[in-house]
Automatic annotation (TrEMBL):
Signal peptide: 1-26
Pfam families linked: LRR_1 (PF00560), LRR_14 (PF23598), LRRNT_2 (PF08263)
Native organism taxonomy: Eukaryota, Viridiplantae, Streptophyta, Embryophyta, Tracheophyta
Reactions performed catalytically: L-threonyl-[protein] + ATP = O-phospho-L-threonyl-[protein] + ADP + H(+); L-seryl-[protein] + ATP = O-phospho-L-seryl-[protein] + ADP + H(+)
Keywords: Glycoprotein, Kinase, Leucine-rich repeat, Membrane, Repeat, Serine/threonine-protein kinase, Signal, Transferase, Transmembrane, Transmembrane helix
MF-aspect GO terms: protein serine/threonine kinase activity
Location of the Disease resistance R13L4/SHOC-2-like LRR domain: 126-341
SUPFAM superfamilies referenced in this protein's UniProt entry, alphabetically: L domain-like
Keyword Metal-binding: no
Name of the featured protein: non-specific serine/threonine protein kinase
Length: 434
């Protein structure tokens, strides 16, 4: 009995010591520590990796851009799972030591000055799920064996490099891919639309700004029903926007600007409830704007430089989140709906170079802080709204080549941010605000 009572405190102290020792030993696996040092060396010990030094911080998991696992392996060691090394001024290529980090799942080396062909050393990173090589200077054609990247890849961002040639079907060899960004390169020919359309988990697709051969928007993309972002400006699209894309109900952003499309804007574009940004600037579209708009979450509408006709719909006044409305350089006629003056978030309006008539909505500027309004070169008349500058933030007021009349609002004089005021060729009268 007495032995037990005497032994118990010793036992408790022993357990505490063990716990403490275990806590202290959540150290990085030796192989990973060596790999990090080799990576730093591979990039020429750049100043941006100065913190990657045991003398600065003993624990490599606290080094800049290094993420380690929460859980440790059997030997009480943690492992490196992520490297976030964007904008580190790296040049050269990707050091092979990167894939000595056996548990690396995430690699972001965007916004550096990396060059050369696609870094095949990455095929050795067997756990990689997230790869961002965007905004570098990689060039050459993408290799056909790019499918040797891990099959569970979810994020592949090769955008804003100088890759050229045709895009191999192998970029779509990753069945659980969610983000495929190939935009802003020098790709030519056709892209593997059929293979891409099988990536049914895809949430964002970027093909924009490549010199593809002219061709229509692939009907098959209608299968990509999880897409939230479809980025296809400046890639030689022809033909009509497919009706079948009405299946893309998760879309929040669509950009088809700078293409050679034909036909009208299909009804679904104005009905998808999740759409926030609609960019169809200089796309070749024509036809009338619809009466019935139910895409009430729209924040930006950019449809300048098309051949849109007919009147602006009253339903624009339902878009309570709209901040940006640009439909300049079209052939719109009729009056600007009064409801637009009631929108609470509208800050940028460009309706120039149409043939709009009637008066500006009298409450424009009363309910939202307008920064920029351009209605030049229309057939508008009547007075300027009195409260355009109610919030004192108006920076551009451009209304030349119309037939506005009456006196200028005296409070324009309080418009301390005003940088551009162009009112010539109208029928204004009275005094110019001092
Ligand atoms: C690291 O990867 C190895 C081999 O794939 C695996 O056995 C181990 O469980 C991983 N460790 C952690 C902490 O994920
Ligand atoms: C980028 O790398 C190239 C060589 O590949 C070099 O000539 C150039 O100066 C580098 N630019 C910057 C900003 O480091
Ligand atoms: C469109 O295609 C034509 C013919 O292939 C090509 O010359 C042109 O550069 C392409 N334009 C763009 C913007 O990619
Ligand atoms: C407007 O469109 C919605 C959604 O497509 C539809 O339910 C509604 O009936 C339409 N309203 C009119 C007036 O056409
Ligand atoms: C006015 O708009 C018409 C088309 O609506 C265009 O042809 C003309 O060049 C524009 N004038 C100016 C001065 O911008
Ligand atoms: C603009 O509309 C007015 C009627 O509001 C019409 O008289 C005029 O011809 C139209 N101008 C052009 C260039 O279409
Ligand atoms: C004044 O504006 C009207 C309407 O846009 C336009 O038709 C006319 O040519 C303009 N006059 C001058 C002198 O620029
Ligand atoms: C401009 O408006 C005035 C009335 O404010 C009208 O008398 C005149 O005819 C209009 N000019 C044009 C070209 O429509």
């Amino acid at each position: 009995m007495s032995t037990t009572t005497c032994f118990l405190p010793v036992l408790i102290a022993g357990v505490l010591l063990l716990l403490l020792a275990h806590g202290c030993s959540s150290r990085l696996a030796t192989g990973d520590r060596e790999a990090l040092v080799a990576i730093r060396k591979g990039w020429g010990n750049p100043r941006s990796l100065a913190t990657w030094d045991p003398a600065v911080a003993a624990d490599p998991c606290s080094w800049y851009g290094v993420t380690c696992s929460d859980t440790s392996n059997g030997e009480g060691e943690s492992v490196v799972t992520g490297l976030s090394l964007g904008s580190m001024s790296f040049s050269g290529t990707v050091p092979a030591a990167v894939c000595d980090l056996k548990n690396l799942t995430q690699l972001d080396i965007s916004f550096n000055n990396l060059s050369g062909v696609f870094p095949a050393v990455l095929y050795g990173c067997s756990q990689l799920r997230y790869l961002d090589l965007s905004h570098n200077s990689f060039d050459g054609a993408l290799p056909d064996d790019i499918s040797r990247l891990p099959s569970m890849l979810e994020h592949l961002d090769l955008s804003s490099n100088n890759f050229d040639g045709t895009i191999p079907a192998a970029v779509a060899a990753f069945p659980v891919l969610k983000h495929l960004l190939l935009n802003n390169n020098r790709f030519t020919g056709t892209y593997p639309a059929v293979e891409i359309s099988k990536l049914t988990g895809l949430e964002s697709l970027g093909l924009a700004y490549n010199a593809f051969a002219p061709g229509p928007m692939p009907q098959a993309f209608a299968k990509l029903t999880k897409l939230t972002s479809l980025w296809m400006p400046n890639m030689n699209l022809t033909g009509e926007i497919p009706e079948a894309f009405s299946s893309l109900t998760e879309l929040t952003d669509i950009d088809l600007s700078f293409n050679e499309l034909t036909g009208t804007i299909p009804a679904w574009v104005w009905q998808h409830k999740k759409l926030k940004s609609l960019q169809m600037y200089r796309s070749g579209l024509n036809g009338k704007l619809p009466r019935n708009i139910t895409a009430v979450n729209l924040v930006e509408i950019h449809m300048s430089s098309n051949q849109l006709k007919g009147e602006m719909p009253d339903d624009f006044g339902k878009l309570n989140k709209l901040t940006f409305l640009s439909i300049s350089n079209n052939q719109l006629t009729g009056a600007i709906p009064i409801s637009i003056g009631l929108l609470p978030k509208l800050i940028y309006i460009d309706l120039s170079n149409n043939n709009l008539s009637g008066e500006l909505p009298p409450e424009l500027g009363m309910h939202s802080p307008i920064l920029h309004i351009d209605v030049s070169n229309n057939s508008l008349s009547g007075p300027l709204p009195r409260m355009l500058c109610a919030n004192g933030l108006l920076s551009q007021l451009v209304a030349f080549h119309n037939n506005f009349s009456g006196t200028l609002p005296m409070n324009l004089g309080d418009c301390v941010q005003l940088k551009t005021l162009l009112l010539y060729n109208n029928s204004f009268s009275g005094e110019f605000p001092v």
